[in-house]
Amino acid sequence: MKSILSQIKRENQYLICVLSVSIVASLCLFTRDYLDYKIVGYLLLVVVSLLAIFLDILPVLLSAILSALIMNFFFLKPYYTFHISNAEDSLLLFLFFLIALINGVLTHKIRKAEKILQIKEVRVNTMKLYNALLDSLSHELRTPISTIMGSIDTIQSKTLTISEENKLKLYSEIEKASLRLNHQVENLLNMSRLESGVIQPKIDWCDLKELVYNVLDSLKDDLQFHKIAVIADENLPLFKLDYGLTEQIIYNLVFNASQYTPKGAKIEIKIEYNANIDFEYNPDKLMPCVISISDDGNGFPEAEIDKVFDKFYRLQNSKTGGTGLGLSIVKGFVEAQNGKITLENKEEGGSIFKIYFPALVMNTAPISNE
């Protein structure tokens, strides 16, 4: 409410002040014979105080002046004149106006101080994120660039004799480093898209099994020391999702598992069609799909599970580098498609990510059997 009122035009703020004071005064006027005028003064003072919390200083000053005039004209005897018959009422009116004025000014100054403090906190947090990003990029971008440059220098060297086999290995290293560099740049661009709010999902029919195998093929070098299992029904239907966003979601989760689990660990990708699921992200009870990505690694520290989707967050005891953007991008891309993602540790060890999409479904089983 505070943020909405702060955006109201100045002319409308004046109108709000006049209406607020007039409405309260009108209600009090009907009970003037039964209500002590001091209580009316307290009520008007409360109105001015509330207006001072939300509106600018000049409209609040207007409400303070208007309240004092209304108090004098309608509630201090003799009625309907600005003449005050005794010194006590004069002092009361003066104190009422002074208190309303001071209250409005002080409240405005407090709000101004709060805004300055918020701006300082935002700047501090921005600098922390900026430093974290620089720290991450200094390693994550420099390493593949150094690999590419070193390999090219070696290949082009006129003083070294390199066998064709070694050249092929160097070309392979250049390719891997290029893919890693591309992955980091993609994450930065995707985070920029999420921050600017320009992501508009392009919904179309997706074959999730095909999508998963495409991701696994692009990560074959990172997964060469892992056991991979894909579990999906033979007659899995098509789901209406954004292919590109969903591919990036699976890619980041599988890549994350490959980097944070030991060699020999098992990574399992399971795609389910659940027609009976009903949860808060599925208000129309559409038939959703559920994608689970689990591993039998070390899992996540329980104290940090709630933070892993935060931007730039990296596990405290992690030896692996990273910009801390992968999982925050995953969450953003899931929510962009009105989905939900959860993370928990498995009792037998390792972790499991579960993604729920309230997607439309096209069952292809009858078509394939004809």
Automatic annotation (TrEMBL):
InterPro entries: HATPase_C_sf, HATPase_dom, His_kinase_dom, HisK_dim/P_dom, HisK_dim/P_sf, Histidine_kinase_KdpD, KdpD_sf, KdpD_TM. Pfam families: DUF4118, HATPase_c, HisKA. PROSITE patterns: HIS_KIN (PS50109). Residues 136-361 form the Histidine kinase domain. It is found in: Membrane. It comes from Flavobacterium xinjiangense. SMART domains: HATPase_c (SM00387), HisKA (SM00388). The keyword Mitochondrion does not apply. Its EC number is 2.7.13.3. GO terms for molecular function: ATP binding; phosphorelay sensor kinase activity. Its main location: membrane. It is a multi-pass membrane protein. This is histidine kinase. It catalyses: ATP + protein L-histidine = ADP + protein N-phospho-L-histidine. GO terms for cellular component: plasma membrane. The chain crosses the membrane at residues 12-30, 42-71, 91-110. Keywords: ATP-binding, Kinase, Membrane, Nucleotide-binding, Phosphoprotein, Transferase, Transmembrane, Transmembrane helix, Two-component regulatory system.
